[in-house]
Specification:
This protein has 166 residues and is mainly beta. It has one domain: Lipocalin. Helices cover 11% and strands 45% of the residues.
């Protein structure tokens, strides 16, 4: 009798297991509106003073930054964050998705500080296959110039490549 009960219990569990795997919808999975510009980036920051570029003058080296969609999934803006690795900025920037460019003028910085801070970004762009990963394979590149209201006149040049995990 135990044998029949065990077989029945096993069949019941397997039947419920298969039934729980049914799909809820036939909708295909999709990406976000800004997925072509969104990503995890490995960048460095240089300073531009009097038209001259000083490479990594603060000795920060490479750091991670992120671009991602807004909660509304708008196709005309994205979040840009330095991941608190450089200045501590997270800001919403207008984008041109077709040209893969972005810029902003006097935009509020969302950070943990007590002061209201703003910044201006110029010449922001993502270049498809514009860089090389650590193995020498082509990957997307990002670059932009940023100036902060609490450090007027200093232009920071942020540039790097998409993090690929390799």
């Amino acid at each position: 009798m135990k044998k029949y009960f065990s077989i029945f219990a096993l069949a019941l569990v397997m039947g419920l297991g298969f039934a729980s795997c049914s799909t809820e919808t036939d909708e295909p999975a999709g990406g976000t509106a800004v997925e072509k510009m969104a990503g995890h980036w490995v960048v460095v920051v240089d300073v531009i003073e009097d038209g001259q570029v000083s490479e990594d003058p603060y000795g920060i080296g490479q750091w991670d930054m992120y671009t991602y969609n807004t909660a509304a999934n708008d196709a005309d803006q994205m979040w840009l964050s330095d991941g608190n690795n450089f200045w501590g900025y997270t800001l919403k920037v207008p984008i041109d998705l077709n040209a893969k460019t972005f810029k902003c003028d006097h935009v509020f910085i969302y950070n943990d500080g007590d002061e209201d801070q703003f910044c201006t970004i110029t010449d922001g762009k993502i270049i498809e296959n514009g860089g090389l990963n650590v193995n020498g394979k082509p990957t997307d590149a990002i670059e932009y110039k940023i100036e902060f209201t609490d450090d007027p006149g200093t232009i920071y040049y942020v540039h790097g490549v998409r993090y690929t995990g390799f």
